[in-house]
Amino acid sequence: DxxxxxxxxxxxxxxxxDKSIKxxxxxxxxxxxxxxxxxxxxxxxxxxxxxxxxxxNETVPNRFSPKSPDKAHLNLHINSLELGDSAVYFCASSQxxxxxxxxxxxxxxxxxxxx
Amino acid sequence: GENVEQHPSTLSVQEGDSAVxxxxxxxxxxxxxxxxxxxxxxxxxxxxxxRSNVGEKKxxxxxxxxxxxxxxxxxxxTETQPEDSAVYFCAANRxxxxxxxxGKGTTLSVSS
Lengths: 115, 112
What we know:
The complex is a heterodimer of chains A (115) and B (112). Chain A has 115 residues and is mainly beta.
């Protein structure tokens, strides 16, 4: 069973389009994250949610809007896609907000290519 | 904010040799330091982690050491195998449920 699953795995689309990426975790975690990995492999946080509440929003353009319908799901909607949005987007989850740090588990990523 | 530096960016070793990757962090409040392995086309996979109350942790061929005073931590892989070839990331975190701050990664190549 896949612990953190993302769909789609690949997404190729035209500049200016709107697209969504979905993420689901079956680990029972209460915190979920979106990270972006650029062409140089650098991983950077975009958003995190704890129990459906937005916790982190790291200076990401307003074109990116995360939504968490429940604590097992965190989706990412992107409006008016730009060439610079081409990257790999990773979803992750952890049992967060407690005193002791817990490992974050990553999905296999969504490779977004803007034409 | 936290900044994590990772070295080297690439590392080539012969099968059976040891590999060492080093990271430094800037925020003395960071207390959790995981290491991730990323294979081609896959997401980062946690391979070992260490908390600030521990100086060393070992899991079979993999070990991590932490020097809180100097604010650096290292990954040691012994008896490397070709399947160890991947990109390795160090990270730091100061509070549960917050973002991991990643180093820029080390591409490890193990040749047989």
